[in-house]
Amino acid sequence: MLIGRIRLCQQLRELLQSFRAVELVGPRQVGKTTIARQFVDTSSANYFDLEDPISRQRLSNPMTALAELQGLVVIDEVQHLPHLPEILRVLMDRPDRIHQPGQFLLLGSAAPRVMHKSESLLGRAVTLEIGGFDISETGVSNTRMHQLWLRGGFPASFLATEDQVSLQWRQSAMQRHVSGDLALLGINVPAPMMMRFWQMLAHYHGQTWNAAEPARALGISEATVRRYLDHLTQTFMVRQLQPWHENLAKRQVKAPKLYFRDTGLLHAMLGIRQLPQLLAHPLSGASWEGFALEQVLRIAQPDQAYFWATHQGAELDLLMFKDQRRIGVEFKRSDAPGLTLSMRIALQDLKLDRLYVVYPGNRRYALTPQVEVVPLAALLP
Asked: Are residues 30 and 104 in the same domain?
C-alpha cells in the first residue's frame, strides 16, 4: 500500500519558493528521504546522503563541492557534518545566490540546535518538521484510525503485514535510537540507562513531569534526568507540552506534561501487542489523548500550544493560539462527552473563543454556543 503525503509535499514546495534553505527535520525512518526524492533524484550530483561513504567523500571539501552547483541541493542526514552551516552561510550570502531561494534542502534527525554545533542558519533557513503518518494521510475509517493509534505513524510500522511484525520493528527502532542515533548526535548516554529511563516515561504519558521520582529510581541526579528528557525531546521521541500561566489569583501548574509523540512506541514500551489489549489497558485513555493531541497539532498547526491547569483541579488539555484566537481542546475517550465544571472554568478564566471536545465517536453536537463535541476525523480541513 502506497500512502502519498500530498499536503506535506505542498508545504515543502511553498517554503522552497520563499527561503534560501529549508531544514526538513524529524525522527529517523519517518519518510524524509522519500519526500526529498520527489524534488531531487538520488542519482543527481545535487543529492548528498551523508550516511553513504561516497557522498561523504564528495563533501570532504564542502565549499568546493557545493559552490558551483545550480538549483536545489539536498543534503540528507546533515547532522553528520555539524559544521556544515558555516559553509552554507557563506554560500547563501553570496550576491549571485541571494535571489535564488530554496537553494538547499537539509534533512536531519534532530532539532537544528542539536545538529549544528557551531554556526546556526538563523534568519537564512526555515524549519519544517515531519512526523509519521497522520489521519489525513491514512484515512479516517475505524480500521485505519485504530491501526494508526496502535502501531503509530512510522511508515514501516504502520504498513507492516501484521501487528507482531510492526511491534518487532518498533522495538528494534527504539534500541537503535538509544544505542546508535544518540551517539551520532554527540549525545553520550549509556544505552541501557537511557532505555530504562524511556521505559519509565511510558508511565508518565499524559501526566505532569516531576524529575524527582525517576531520579531516585535510577540512582542519578534530577539534573541528569532532565537532560535525558531533553535528549528524547530534541530527537522527536517525546513532547513536553508547556504550561500556560494566566494572570489569575490562582496557583497554576508550572511543570510540563509529557507525551510520547508516537503511540506505537508507547505501546511497545507498555508491552501492548494488539488492539483488544490496548482497549482494555489502564492507560488506554491517556494513550488515546496523546494520539489525538498529536493529530490535532498536525492538522491545526497553531502558532503556539500549551496545556493549562490549576492546583484547585481545573484544567484544559490543550490551549492553542491561532490567528489571534484562543482555542481550547479537551480529549475524551468516551461515547458521549458532556460539559464539565472544569470546561466552564477554562472558558471563563482563559477567555476562550471556542472549546472543542474531541472524542472517538462519529456524531458532532453542541454543548453550549461556545463548546462543541467533535469527532477527531471532523477536524480535517
From this structure: yes
